[in-house]
Fold this protein.
Amino acid sequence: MIAPDVRGHGSSANATKPFRWADDLAALLRHLDAGPAVLVGLSMGGVIATDTVLEYPELVRAVVTCGAATGDFQYTDDWTREIQAEYARTLGAGDVEGWLDAFVRVVPGPYRGADDVDPRIARRLREMAFNSISKHTPGEKDWLVRVSDSWSRLPKIDVPVLTVNGTLEPPEMLDAAERLARTVPNGRAQTVEDTAHYPNMEKPEVFNKILLEFLSAL
């Protein structure tokens, strides 16, 4: 198993020139002679997985995406847009604690409160996010180049794709995941009851069972 850090996250250095997530992951897989690989990603990681299978199909054996669809998907619901606005405000002000407060609001999702979820989940996510956000400064240039035109290219994906999402995600996220699974030739969508953006952390036994069953069928 390979758990890569994205540029500017974890122990990886911040970007200093334009880059794409898919190019970085492809370069890593080739360096390790690890392809074709099964890509499993949550949230941003799920977008990276779909980006990579679109751009480098020869390096991918299968895809599991959780809490994500493709890089072209954009939230439009008021709850998510409010959180995104808070991200922008706190980042611009260099308010790390404020950004972290907004970040962990995603844990319960739009239908629950923080007290409805095991507090260890938010605490762990806050610790991990702090390590990454602290490496950045207000006004820092975003060098990321997005992969575009993803929806129209989905029918060309010729490997199995599984989407896994919590039922308490915003409805448009669930709709996008269903669309992804429906559009690729070999796609399937599953949900985990009573979880939101992090079903792998809220119900790890259920999530792992879904994942292992998918892998065993490849």
